[in-house]
Design a protein that fits this description.
The structure holds three protein chains of three kinds.
Chain A lengths: L3 H8 L6 H16 L1 H13 L1 H32 L4 E9 L2 E2 L8 H5 L17 E10 L10 E7 L1 H4 L1 E3 L4 E3 L10 H16 L3 E4 L1 H7 L6 E6 L7 E8 L9 E4 H12 L17 E8 H13 L8 E5 H9 L3 H33 L1 H9 L4 H35 L2 E5 L2 E4 L5 H25 L3 H8 L1
Parallel strand pairs in A: 4-10, 7-9
Antiparallel strand pairs in A: 1-11, 1-12, 3-4, 3-8, 3-11, 5-6, 7-10, 8-9, 13-14
Helix pairs in contact in A: 2-3, 2-15, 3-14, 4-12, 4-14, 4-15, 12-15, 13-16, 14-15
Chain B lengths: L4 E14 L2 E14 L3 E5 L6 H8 L7 E6 L2 E2 L5 H11 E4 L11 H6 L9 H14 L15 H13 L5 E5 L7 H18 L2 E5 L3 H4 L4 E6 L2 E6 L17
Chain C lengths: L1 H41 L8 H10 L1 H35 L4 E6 L26 E6 L2 E6 L1 E12 L10 E9 L2 H7 L17 E3 L7 E8 H10 L10 E4 L2 E9 L9 E5 H8 L6 E5 L6 H11 L5 E5 H7 L2 H35 L1 H10 L3 H28 L5 E6 L7 E6 L4 H27 L3 H5 L1
Parallel strand pairs in C: 5-10, 7-9
Antiparallel strand pairs in C: 1-11, 1-12, 2-3, 4-5, 4-11, 6-7, 7-10, 8-9, 13-14
Helix pairs in contact in C: 1-12, 2-3, 2-11, 3-8, 3-9, 3-11, 3-12, 9-12, 11-12
Classes of the chains: A alpha+beta, B alpha/beta, C alpha+beta.
Chain lengths: 463, 245, 467
């Protein structure tokens, strides 16, 4: 979908983007270049402080809502944006959901299932990651959202590892690379600890707070999806980075060991029902579409994976499949909610500006008498609207970013498997552009009517 | 006076439509104003004196006829050009002062200068000079609301002269003032004419105010009907476009 | 530094939030008082206000009226549509449950998809006397059977033909393996459309003309899913006899359920054993029973939970089960309330602008009215009414506009919020309740936005106003 906001988002996915900074610079430049005029506009706005504040507040609030909605859409858009290089593929059971593959698949899948010489081989040490899901409750008698926890069971080295040769951290998890160096170092230490003591786990900060537990505490989980495999954990630390606020990660080995000890001495039919079903999915990183196609082909043609069959999707299309259930909801947000808010904003601004133009007809006429040209008057009115729109939009975008991300700690909205959304870095730029666009849209007509004030008519009425 | 006329109005007509009927405000009117003259226009309301003033100030365009001010024919300028022309060539004084309430006296006077390519220092010099001239340099940081009517009108005059225009146009400048303030304002206008050689056109219906002018033109129903020179016996004859001063 | 800022903001938020709540509460209180006053004057107990004057003013300043009214319209219309969506989801959960049914899941399972009943003593469920027995007609024979439906619920990824990069690669189809389709249809009260039939109780597979020796799985589709799958082959809907691919096998449609308004609308039903074999799930996830006439389903559910221990089960009325799926709806509802309130606040600021300006323009009028003998409160009521009127008209149009969404179909996801969940197809439902909410909200915005300006109007002294 080539939607407008998608285009805008691509330009503004990051606050450090040149378009946003250029826009702000342009606004400041114009304001300083025409400082006298700007000052004049400011003074005009100050005349009816109440109205200016009301209009600014309306813009502020509506920009806030749009920023929230757009942040969600932007995040999902980025997740489903087709990448052509350095992309991740997701290997799952072909038909059943949730996917449950035998762990015996893991070794070959981690390499991208090469069988013949010349097949594409994925580096399993760096570019693949297995995931199992282990979930349970802290209180089997009272299952609430707060005391149910789901773990990514995986190899700790895939959360983060340090390459002594290249002196670089590498991770298979999204967004871990955005953590600070210090956070990475701590996380790296924690992951090595997890390898040594598989019962130690990492938990997202919000999840930790919900569970009312602290780092260092131990807790016991009664499993929901691995019946009778109840495990005890020790909290080793928090997972950094906004993406994993609600998540938890454990060492896959711990789960595997628990199942094996459960099965020990039991005949095949008494073994745990999940024995051959632990592997939920395998992530594989490939450099480009060509490599992806080859891996996908190798996997789908392999005789090794028959019961169950497996498939290989790009991460983006895999996620898009999950999001399909929300398509109407997202459509509504994108094409109903956002436009309605934009129009409402323009209406509020149009109303305020046209009231103030009507009140100042005489003043506009005086300016004309003094030699202001119609276009100068037009731009004075537009400028006033822009001043309100841009300022409150910029502040609103920035404040939304700060409030939601730093104060509230993310926007909890269960869409697919994403539990929390964060306001985009680009929010201040969105605010600026939304404020500017709606201010323009709202003030064009009133400004035009100010432009065409007839001096002789105004004064013949006065005199 | 043998000076070339600075304002020349030739066969100007102006009519408005109100609904289906056409109202002729000015009918084939001609008039010359020599440079440096202080001219008063009088007449009953509806006689077209304000309309004539607006036409000469370039605020409106005649239905037919030609208006020249200095070397320019303003009757066929575009609105945007007229605006630019007004900044440099005409200063306007209103009955109700029409200062911008959000700006100080200084800023009000400075306003027209913003339209000219001038440095801040130059603007400051010119604004101070203008305010000095009207005797308000001690009030320049006051808002219009903090000034008396007479003081506001002085600010209005300072604003009119700050761009150093040749022509000053005033529409009932004393209409809203008490006798004393009115007297002071008229003194100021005479002073402008005498010391700065400004050409002043003033519409008024106050005979006392008009008597300060050098020449008074009387309008009725869109036509000049008579001309008097204050202090001299009234000339009852119909006047022509040729002034007889 | 950041921590300090956070604390500062927290306090600021609490202060501002509390202040705003207080102001709104006071405003609403005064508004209520004014409305009582209006009522009194409507029945002629107190003197009238110059209402005609306000109406005339709204008409004269039609541009401002239009701009402000439109803002109301948009907010209310949007609110109506969003609430209609949630309403549709609630209607779905309500419509899917049958009052006399009890649903049995494995203990600890938060959703059907995680439930595994196994083959322990639960298999004797059919013999319990609290289960309704009814005459079942199948294959031209009539026999009395217990109304127990053993089901295996699975989600199957159906590969889409030629997926685009970044677009979804598969569609998730919800498959319900059923042991006794006729009984299941009776338990869930799902009749078939004319021309269709349930799959065989025996094999549940068949050959199709032109299909060679391949055995197709007999499937019964919900109407919604039939339409959805029809889109792949450019048909408005799949019909009996059509075939499709799902999982590792080919399927043939043998019947279409009258499933509109139920979650089953987006499901395909087939023989449990066939589904199980296809997906390596030789087990049953749930049992749904109809309780015998006169019994309380909640009581029966408790009995079942205590009767069976291997495996431990957890029985609940079907109504309870579907209500537990409303978790998502509640989240949506909260989000909608959030968005609407914020938009409403934006709208309120707009109305305040309008009303303050209206009053500023009419100070002279107010002065005249006061001199003519109108009391302060009459002026107050008159301006307050003006903004209410504006809000009411805007709100009415908004409701009308929002009502257009009634009956639109949409897809959504529904879950209890603990994993799992169903994709559902729903119809937006605009009902009287939603319209009332919309109107009340609109009037509320009018109150909050109109009262402050109206109060400022009465503070004018008559003679000052004349200047």
């Amino acid at each position: 979908m080539n939607s407008i906001d998608e285009v805008l988002l691509r330009f503004t996915s990051d606050w450090r983007n040149p378009v946003g900074i250029a826009a702000l610079a342009l606004v400041l430049f114009v304001a300083i270049l025409y400082w006298e005029q700007t000052r004049f506009m400011l003074k005009s706005l100050r005349r009816n402080v109440l109205r200016s504040v009301l209009t600014g507040m309306a813009t502020f609030i509506l920009v806030l809502v749009i920023t929230l909605v757009w942040s969600i859409l932007a995040f999902l858009d980025r997740q489903t944006a087709a990448k052509s290089e350095n992309l991740k593929a997701i290997i799952t059971e072909k038909y059943q959901l949730p996917s449950q593959m035998p762990i015996s698949y893991a070794t070959s899948l981690a390499e991208g299932a090469p069988r013949n010489a010349g097949d594409y081989r994925v580096n399993p040490a760096k570019d693949s990651m297995l995931w199992a899901f282990y979930g349970g409750t802290l209180d089997p008698n009272k299952k609430t959202r707060e005391n149910i926890i789901f773990f990514f069971a995986m190899e700790p080295s895939k959360i983060i590892s340090y390459d002594n040769r290249t002196k670089k951290y590498s991770s298979m998890m999204d967004d871990i690379d955005q953590a600070t160096d210090e956070e990475k170092r701590l996380l790296n230490d924690a992951c090595r600890e997890m390898e040594k003591y598989p019962y130690k786990v990492l938990v997202g900060p919000t999840r930790l707070a919900q569970m009312n537990k602290r780092v260092g505490e131990r807790f016991k989980v009664t499993s929901l999806n691995y019946k009778e495999i109840d495990l005890e954990f020790e909290i080793l630390g928090e997972i950094p980075g906004g993406r994993y606020e609600l998540s938890a990660a454990m060492n896959y080995q711990y789960l595997q060991d628990a199942i094996e000890s459960y099965n020990k001495g039991k005949s095949k039919d008494k073994q745990h029902a999940m024995t051959e079903r632990t592997l939920a999915l395998m992530w594989v990183r490939v450099p480009d579409m060509d490599a992806f196609e080859r891996v996908a082909q190798q996997i789908s043609s392999s005789p090794e994976y028959t019961t169950p069959a497996v498939k290989c999707d790009t991460a983006s299309s895999g996620i898009a499949s999950f999001l399909d259930a929300y398509k109407d909801l997202l459509f509504g947000m994108r094409w109903l909610l956002v436009p309605a808010i934009l129009v409402t904003m323009s209406l509020v601004i149009a109303n305020a500006i046209s009231i103030s133009v009507r009140e100042r007809r005489v003043e506009m006429a005086v300016l004309k008498v003094l030699g202001f040209s119609p276009n100068q008057i037009l731009s004075l009115v537009l400028g006033e609207a822009l001043l309100i729109g841009c300022t409150s939009g910029l502040i609103s975008g920035w404040l939304t970013y700060f409030l939601i991300n730093d104060l509230v700690g993310g926007l909890a909205l269960p869409i697919a498997f994403f539990g929390k959304f964060f306001i985009s870095d680009a929010a201040p730029w969105w605010g600026l552009s939304i404020g500017a666009a709606t201010a323009l849209a709202g003030s064009v007509l009133p400004a035009w009517s100010a432009r065409s004030v007839k001096v002789s008519e105004v004064f013949s009425k006065v005199a | 006076m043998s000076l070339a006329p600075i304002v020349r109005v030739e066969n100007v007509c102006k009519s408005f439509r109100r609904g289906s009927e056409q109202i002729d405000v000015l009918m084939n009117l001609s008039l010359d104003v020599p440079e440096g003259e202080f001219l008063a226009l009088m007449g009953p309301s509806g006689s077209g004196k304000t309309t004539l003033l607006n036409l000469i100030a370039g605020l409106d365009r005649p239905t037919s006829g030609v208006i020249r001010v200095g070397p320019e024919t303003i009757s066929d300028m575009s609105e945007a050009r007229l605006a630019r022309w007004r900044t440099r060539n005409v200063g306007f004084v209103f009955q109700f002062y029409n200062l911008l309430p959000v700006l100080t006296a200084y800023e009000n006077v400075e306003l027209p200068l913003l339209l000219l390519p001038m440095s801040k220092a130059m603007r400051k010099q010119q604004v101070t000079t203008a305010l000095d001239l009207v005797g308000l340099s001690n009030r320049m940081n006051h808002r219009p609301g903090q000034l008396s009517g007479g003081q506001q009108q002085r600010v209005g005059i300072a604003r009119a002269i700050v761009t150093d225009p040749t022509l000053i146009v005033a529409d009932e400048p004393t209409g809203d003032l008490d006798t004393r303030s009115a007297h002071e304002i008229l003194d100021l206008m005479v002073e402008l004419k005498n010391s700065l050689n400004k050409t002043i056109l003033m519409v008024t219906h106050d005979p006392k105010a008009a008597s300060r002018a050098e020449r008074i033109l009387h309008l009725e129903k869109g036509q000049l009907v008579s001309e008097t020179v204050p202090g001299a016996p009234a000339l009852d004859s119909r006047i022509t476009s040729e002034p007889t001063a | 530094m950041k921590a300090l800022l956070l604390i500062l903001f927290k306090w600021l938020a609490i202060l501002v939030g509390g202040g705003v709540l207080l102001v709104v509460a006071v405003i609403l209180l005064i508004s209520a008082g004014l409305m009582v006053l209006m009522l009194l004057q409507a029945v002629g107990l107190v003197r009238r206000v110059p209402l005609g004057y306000n109406v005339r003013n709204l008409m004269v300043r039609w541009r401002t009226t239009l701009l402000t009214g439109l803002a109301f319209t948009l907010v209310v219309a949007l609110m109506t549509v969003m609430l209609a969506f949630v309403n549709g989801m609630y209607a779905l959960t309500k419509g899917s449950a049958v009052a006399g049914n009890v649903m049995v899941l494995a203990d600890g399972a938060t959703d059907e998809v995680f439930s595994d009943l196994g083959y322990g003593d639960i298999s004797t469920l059919e013999n319990k006397e609290y289960i309704k027995r009814a005459e079942v007609r199948q294959d031209n024979k009539t026999e009395v059977r217990p109304l127990v439906s053993w089901e295996l619920y699975q989600v199957v990824a159906q590969q889409l033909p030629n997926p685009q990069p970044g677009k979804r690669s598969s569609r998730f189809v919800q498959v319900r393996g059923i042991e006794d389709p006729v009984v299941a249809g009776m338990v869930h009260e799902l009749p078939l459309h004319e021309g269709g039939q349930w799959f065989d109780r025996g094999a549940g597979i068949q050959a199709v003309p032109g299909g060679g020796n391949e055995q197709y799985v007999q499937g019964v589709l919900g109407e919604g899913l039939a339409r959805e799958l029809g889109r792949d082959v450019a048909k408005p809907s799949l019909a009996v006899g059509d075939t499709f691919e799902l999982g590792p096998r080919k399927w043939v449609v043998v019947g279409i359920m009258k499933s509109a308004g139920k979650t089953f609308d987006s499901e395909v039903w087939a023989k449990r054993e066939v589904v199980g074999a296809m997906l390596r799930k030789m087990t049953r996830s749930t049992a749904v029973i109809r309780v015998a006439d006169g019994l309380d389903p909640a009581q029966v559910a408790r009995e079942i939970t205590s009767d069976f221990k291997s495996p431990a089960v957890q029985a609940q009325t079907e109504t309870q089960y579907f209500e537990s799926l409303n978790g998502t709806n509640q989240t949506f509802l909260i989000a909608i309330i959030f968005v609407t309130v914020f938009m409403g606040v934006g709208g309120v600021f707009g109305v305040m602008n309008t009303m303050f300006a209206a009053i500023a323009q009419r100070t002279r009028d107010i002065g005249v009215m006061r001199i003519l003998g109108f009391a302060r409160w009459q002026i107050l009521v008159s301006f307050f009414l003006e903004s209410l009127l504006l809000a009411l008209i805007g709100g009415l149009v908004g409701c009308a506009l929002g009502s257009l969404a009634d009956g639109l179909s949409a897809t959504s996801q529904m879950s209890g919020g603990q994993g799992g969940g169903k994709s559902v197809m729903l119809k937006l439902v605009v009902d009287a309740r939603i319209l009332m909410v919309g109107l009340v909200f609109s009037v509320l915005m009018g109150c909050v936005g109109g009262l402050l300006p109206a109060l400022s109007a009465i503070r004018l002294k008559p003679l000052d106003a004349m200047h």
